[in-house]
Write a sequence for this structure.
């Protein structure tokens, strides 16, 4: 790692339904890579919290196990990496009671807020974009983001480009962000005004670098967030196994430097700590 401080603030352990590595394995890998901070943020999907299904599993047990594994790993941690306890809240407003119950499980350092699916719809991963009305879908997406930001019980908004991974990345449909400028500006202004962070999710992409800024969908959002007064940016690889840990983080730091960003935020006990990136 070339930069002075490095942090991966979005990482899953096997206490997430779709991840493989233990907290101890993620911490060991973080130490090998020389990361200063590692925040484990296991999944919570509000609509399925009290309705266990075959995909998400028994979330109350998994999240209690996640907090307990992080606590144990912290106690025996002899590495240079500081281990922090986080959670990724998926669609927190789809079942607010479940969200409040999940947030009471641990004294979290860091809370991410995600939208993987719109209300009463499947994950963006599953949709067929050649059949969906994309403008309505995206407007609804940004509107749900605004509702979450106004609710505000989180620190950083995760992977804002999530639907675009599948609409542009997989289905190959081009989207002009300017068609959604009003909706995007509303969400990013609310985020900046509420002093919440925007996550730069590196999607476990080791190819990320300042030479491919034009191809990086996050850049449009990061640039606009900064223009609108946003101050806090967090970084996360979203690694679901130890070998993907911190992938893309170094390239993301180069991109942020190009955008004039001097510091990234790492949250401890819900407070942002600013780390210089050059
Ligand atoms: Zn996510
Ligand atoms: Zn995630």
């Amino acid at each position: 790692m070339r930069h002075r401080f490095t942090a991966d603030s979005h990482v899953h352990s096997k206490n997430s339904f779709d991840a493989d590595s233990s907290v101890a394995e993620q911490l060991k890998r973080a130490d090998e890579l020389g990361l200063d901070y590692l925040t484990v943020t296991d999944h919570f999907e509000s609509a399925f919290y009290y309705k266990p299904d075959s995909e998400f599993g028994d979330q109350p047990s998994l999240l209690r196990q996640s907090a307990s594994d992080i606590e144990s790993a912290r106690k025996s941690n002899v590495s240079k990496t500081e281990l922090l306890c986080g959670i990724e809240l998926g669609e927190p407003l789809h079942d607010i009671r479940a969200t409040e119950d999940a947030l009471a499980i641990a004294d979290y350092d860091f809370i991410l807020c995600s939208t993987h699916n719109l209300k009463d719809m499947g994950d963006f991963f599953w949709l067929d974009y050649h059949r969906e009305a994309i403008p309505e879908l995206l407007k609804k997406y940004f509107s749900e983001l605004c509702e979450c930001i106004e609710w505000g019980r989180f620190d950083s908004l995760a992977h804002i480009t999530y639907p675009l991974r599948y609409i542009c990345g997989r289905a190959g449909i081009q989207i002009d962000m300017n068609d959604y400028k009003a909706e995007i500006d509303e969400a990013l202004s609310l985020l900046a005004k509420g002093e919440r962070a925007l996550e730069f999710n590196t999607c476990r992409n080791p190819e990320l670098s300042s030479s491919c800024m034009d191809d990086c969908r996050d850049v449009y959002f990061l640039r606009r967030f900064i223009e609108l007064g946003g101050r806090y940016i967090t970084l996360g690889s979203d690694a679901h196994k130890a070998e993907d840990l911190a992938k893309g983080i170094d390239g993301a730091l180069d991109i942020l430097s190009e955008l004039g960003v001097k510091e990234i935020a790492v949250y401890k006990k819900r407070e942002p700590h600013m780390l210089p990136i050059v």
Remarks:
- Residues 88, 114, 116, 158-159 surround zinc ion (ligand 1) (CB under 6 Å).
- The radius of gyration is 18 Å.
- The domain at 7-276 is CATH 3.20.20.140 (TIM Barrel).
- DSSP finds eight helices and nine strands in the chain.
